[in-house]
Amino acid sequence: MRILLTTLNAKYIHVNLALRYLRACCRDLPHTFILDEFTINDHPEHIAAAIYRYQPDMVAFSCYIWNSAPTLAVAAILKKVRPDLLVLCGGPEVSFDTAAFLAQNPQVDLVITGEGEIPFRALMEQLAGRQHPQAGSRQEPLLASIARPAAERFAPGPVPDPAAIPGLAWRRGGEVVVNPPAPLPRNLDAIPFPYQEDLEAAGNDLRQRTVYYETSRGCPFACGFCLSSTTEGLRYFSLKRVRDDLERLLTAGVREIKFVDRTFNANKKRALAIWEFLLSRRPRARFYFEIAGDRLDEEMLAFLDQVPPGLFQFEIGVQTIDAGVNALCNRRQDWTRLAANTLRLREAGSIRLHLDLIAGLPGETYAGVGKSFDAVAALKPHEIQLGFLKLLKGTSLRARAGEFGYLFLDRPPYEVLASSTITYEEMLRLHSVETLLRHYGNSHLADHALGYLAATAFGGSCFTLYETMAAWWEARGLLRRGHSQRDLFEFLAAFAAGLAGPAGMARPAAPGEPYLEEPGGKLEAGHPTPPGAVRPERFYPLTARQLDRFYQLLKFDFLCRDRSRNFPGWVPPSPLTGEERANYMARITAPRSIEKYMPGLAKEAPANLRRHGFIELFPCHPERPEQDDPTLAFFYYGPQGPRAEVYYLHTLPPAV
Q1: Which backbone phi and psi does 339 adopt, to 5 degrees?
Q2: How far apart are CA 98 and CA 104, in angstroms?
Q3: What's the sign of the alpha-carbon dihedral 331, 336, 342, 344?
């Protein structure tokens, strides 16, 4: 048979690990396996056409919350033009409420639930005309736990005996049958290396993609919102197997590996062993790990201090700092230790840190989300993800939805709309905050200016800054369209102008009340606040000096990003004359000055620095904006990256 294994990835650069496991487990069977991947941005009609041209006998889809709707659309098209085509679905989205899924989707013939290696292998053996051996009679340990049926039972249809395949859901006339689950593979080393065919293929496009890899299955925690809570215990690939696999991938030139272990550092000894191996290879690749930040101890932190910059990225799930909310989620977390460890990693500066928050957790209020947001922002991670609770099939929080008053989407991604402690309006506000966080915070577009604005106008609360700015955007219809980088600077400059004035608002504005307008904090009657655009309880109006300092910092951030020198109208004029700037440029691009002040540019020709560099004088050091400390900054716009390389030259003698 011709078996097509496929999925719709979120992005082209992603690769689907599950499909490769299935292919690897059946290499010895007399089927032709074709693996092709699409994305959720492809049109279902185009995907169906591509699959049709392969002329498969069966198509197997890997299904997740982000791709189930377009996947079913593709399957429906294929069934219309190829009624004989066998359509199989597997993956987390179809592993729960499976009978209802099959009943509602006649275009799907079969479903495999849970981990797919054992049931898929059994299905492929049946379709190849083989019979299962007695348990334990095969050399292959992966399937040793599948017993031969007590009697030979054959059902009409394309699969000779679907009732004998554990974990399979199928149709018997008008009835949906869901077989008992398959046993979990216990000896993970028996699962073959999944990327052999990719590495042997001409072109080896894994070098340009994100390769997903796992060293374990399961999780030591049982968080009520996570699918990992549906299985008990942790199972590991052996360290030898992990080292061998990683060696093959790195030798093949893979540049980006994302470990999908739910808690990579659940076992300290294993985590250190794998990290040590990776460092010993001196790789050019990048590695991503999802870790529990509070499970790092001094030995692990001391080792991580040695990691070269850019090699590792850690994703740390904070979700909330509220111990009571965590308890309702059956979740354990030592926030104090997590925060201290994150600060330690941040100060070391070599590991990129991505911290997650979830809005909509049981018992958490809007103010509680803001408190968690500010606590995480104070750690200054490289990225904060403000996510929204999804009540996934099979999780305990979904089963307890009524207890917490949840209103949620009844289709993927099953996102929470409101609960007994947070309203729909408040969730909409948080979505707006998340939009502004992506535009400004996680892009680091204007870190210096935003940090100063949060400290001076919002009492240090980044959350209050973002919610106020989100309301300002909503009032102008800015949230519903795309914007250029230059637009984002313009909006931030105008927003800050609107914070300058004689007094802040003492309470949230109600719909219909006047809304703060720029310039100068003028309150214009007749400009109503739109529903949901609630003002913070208080902001501190910017003085003229503070507003000027903000614009200086925004100018610095703008120069870090924009090499055009086509300055917007809000940019303060330069204190340097053209002659002074030319003199400074000549002096600092002399070889001795480059070596002293800009050693990172020592290999660049002076003429190149003059051609691609720019000098500006600021009234303060951008890292210490509260102090008056005139500082020269040299911006070098080389060929690499979207940001300029910046060198501070405040010790340089005056130009002559």
Answers
A1: -65, -45
A2: 10
A3: negative
Interacting residues of 150 by C-beta distance below 8 A, sequence separation 6+: none
β-pair partners for 177: 170
Q: What is the pLDDT of residue 551?
A: 97
Query: Which residues have a Cβ under 8 Å from the Cβ of 141 and sit 6 or more positions away?
Result: 187, 190
User: What is the reported pLDDT for 42?
Assistant: 95
CA angle 11, 12, 17 (to 5 degrees): 85
Tokens representing 127?
Answer: 């379709």
**Residue 501 neighbours by CB under 8 Å, 6+ apart:** 516, 520, 521, 522, 541, 542
* Contact present, 644 and 637 (Cβ < 8 Å): yes
Cα–Cα distances in angstroms (integers) from residue 266 to residues 219, 272, 290, 503, in the given order:
8, 11, 10, 51
Distance, in Å, from the CA atom of 499 to the CA atom of 454, rounded to the nearest integer, reads: 12
Contact (CB, 8 A) for 514 and 525: yes
- Asked whether the predicted pLDDT for residue 156 surpasses 50, the reply is no
Within 501-642, where are the H helices?
Answer: 544-561, 578-588, 591-597, 606-612
- pLDDT at residue 538, rounded to an integer: 60
Integer Cα distance of 44 and 69 in angstroms:
10
Q: Phi, psi at residue 625, to the nearest 5°?
A: -70, -20
Is there a contact between 448 and 556 (Cβ–Cβ < 8 Å)?
yes
Q: What is the DSSP letter of 174?
A: T
3-state secondary structure of 230: helix
Residue 265, C-beta contacts closer than 8 angstroms, at least 6 positions apart: 271, 289, 291, 292, 295, 296, 300
With H, G, I as helix, E, B as strand and everything else as coil, classify residue 20. Answer: helix
Q: For the chain, what are the domain ranges?
A: 2-134+141-178, 188-422, 440-506+531-573, 574-655
Provide the token pair at 261.
């272990």
Three-state secondary structure call for residue 35: strand
How does DSSP assign 322-363, residue by residue? -HHHHHHTT----HHHHHHHHHHHHHH--SEEEEEEEET-TT
Beta bridge partners of 359: 388
Handedness of CA 419, 425, 430, 432 (dihedral sign): positive
* The CATH number, out of the four listed (3.40.190.10, 3.40.50.2300, 3.80.30.20, 3.40.630.30), of the domain defined by the range 188-422: 3.80.30.20
Is residue 484 exposed (0-12), middle (13-18) or buried (19+ Cβ within 10 Å)? exposed
Query: What secondary structure letter does DSSP report for 500?
Result: B
**pLDDT tens digits for 228-249?**
877 778 999 999 999 999 999 9
What DSSP element (H or E) covers 590?
none
pLDDT at 32: 95
Burial 334-354 (b: 16+ CB within 10 A, else e): ebeebbbbbeebeeeeebbbb
Q: How many residues does the chain have?
A: 656
- By DSSP bridging, strand 58-62 and strand 216-218 are unpaired
Q: Which numeric CATH code is attached to 2-134+141-178?
A: 3.40.50.280
Q: Give the phi and the psi of residue 308 in degrees, each rounded to 5.
A: -60, 150
Q: Of 484, 455, 490, nearest to 472 (Cα)?
A: 490
Condensed to tens digits (0 to 9), the pLDDT of residues 165-191 reads 999 999 998 899 999 999 999 999 999
Express each pLDDT in 264-306 by its tens digit.
Answer: 999 999 999 999 999 999 988 999 999 999 999 999 999 999 9
Note whether 65 and 226 are within 8 A (CB). no
